[in-house]
Amino acid sequence: MEIVHSASVLDEMLQPFRLAGKTIGFVPTMGALHEGHATLVKRCAAENDLCVVSIFVNPTQFNNIEDLKHYPRTPEKDYLLLESIGTDIIFTPSVEEVYPEPDKRVFDFGMLDKVMEGHFRPGHFNGVAQVVSKLFTVVRPDKAYFGEKDFQQLAIVREMVRQLQLPVVIVGVPTVREADGLAMSSRNQRLSEEQKKNASQIQRVLRASDAMRGGYTPGQVADYVVGEINNVPGLSVEYYEIVDGNTLQPISSWEKTAYAVGCIAVFCGDVRLIDNIRYN
Ligand code: PAF
């Protein structure tokens, strides 16, 4: 496994593989890796001739400087994990390498980034699109892997690829969970054992809400979810929206879509967690 900090060195390293017609798979990450990332990387390694993983905590997608400062960084542990699961190259550039000058690009994602995370974290998805498009330009992957936990991010990345006509297949990978249902996230490292137990109630309530679909409107189901989760000690819901999984716009009745998804953001102390459920 090689660890590369420079985009030009990475490009030189990848060129012979491209010329030989080998497929390049890519997993962009911000490090602090967990079993969820490992699932993406294993899939990437299994489906491509070469597996490239980036570790880069992207400042342009943080709209809260404290969040950026506290974002966990565990490079040595990450390298060991990545080596053990089939990573060929880790690309871990500096901020100056990725942004030699400020990235002034402003993407237009229509209504996709006006709701949920986009509403509560203004500028977040523009920053994600900036960094992912830059990373795609350097790595030029055939396939790139993203977790479905970040449901809105996945939709935004697909839309960015469509707009920029990038020749990359975006693969969405199901959320990996702890045994009690808590979605794996780098932010879980900041939770105490007690907080983790409380946070596991998020998925329990979402699953319970699935059974209500027969007799209640999406609005009533959303009210139930918010009420139940706010009753758990230490949890405070920022939003819960039941949306069409393609347009991400809220739905007022179940008949409006065959692809209803509930997306939630919850504060557990000062740690902000997101999760979602597909209503079948
Ligand atoms: O999901 C993440 O970890 C980040 O948003 C990503 C896609 C690596 C871009 O910085």
Describe this structure in words.
- The structure is a single chain.
- By secondary structure, this protein is an alpha/beta fold.
- It folds into two domains: 2-173, 3-Layer(aba) Sandwich (Rossmann fold), CATH 3.40.50; 186-279, Pantoate-beta-alanine ligase, C-terminal domain (Pantoate--beta-alanine Ligase, Chain: A,domain 2).
- Helix content is 40%, strand content 20%.
- The chain contains eleven helices and nine strands.
- The chain has a six-stranded parallel sheet with strand order 1-4-3-2-5-6, sandwiched between helices. A three-stranded antiparallel sheet has the order 7-8-9.
- The longest helix is centred in the middle third of the chain and has 16 residues, at 124-139.
- The chain is globular.
- It starts with a strand and ends with a strand.
- The structure holds pantoate.
- The site of pantoate (PAF) has 10 residues, from strand 2 and helix 7.
Brief descriptors of the model:
280 residues; alpha/beta; Rossmann fold; Pantoate--beta-alanine Ligase, Chain: A,domain 2; six-stranded parallel beta sheet; three-stranded antiparallel beta sheet; 11 helices; 9 strands; 40% helix; 20% strand; globular; binds pantoate
Tell me the CATH superfamily of the largest domain. HUPs
Q: What is the SS-derived class?
A: alpha/beta
> So what's the CATH class of the largest domain?
Alpha Beta
The CATH topology name of the largest domain reads: Rossmann fold
In DSSP terms (H or I, runs of 4 or more residues), the helix count works out at: 11
Helix content: 25-40%
Instruction: Give the overall pLDDT as a whole number.
Output: 97
Molecular shape: globular
Radius of gyration: 19 Å
Task: Kindly state the number of beta strands.
Answer: 9
**Which residues sit in consecutive blocks of at least 5 with pLDDT less than 50?**
none
Instruction: Please report which band the strand proportion falls in: under 5%, 5-15%, 15-25%, 25-35%, 35-45% or over 45%.
Output: 15-25%
Would you identify the CATH architecture of the largest domain? 3-Layer(aba) Sandwich
Largest sheet geometry: 6 strands, parallel
SSE succession: EHEHEHHEHHHEHEHHHEEE
Which strand order do you get reading across the main beta sheet?
1-4-3-2-5-6
**What is the terminal separation in angstroms?**
41 Å
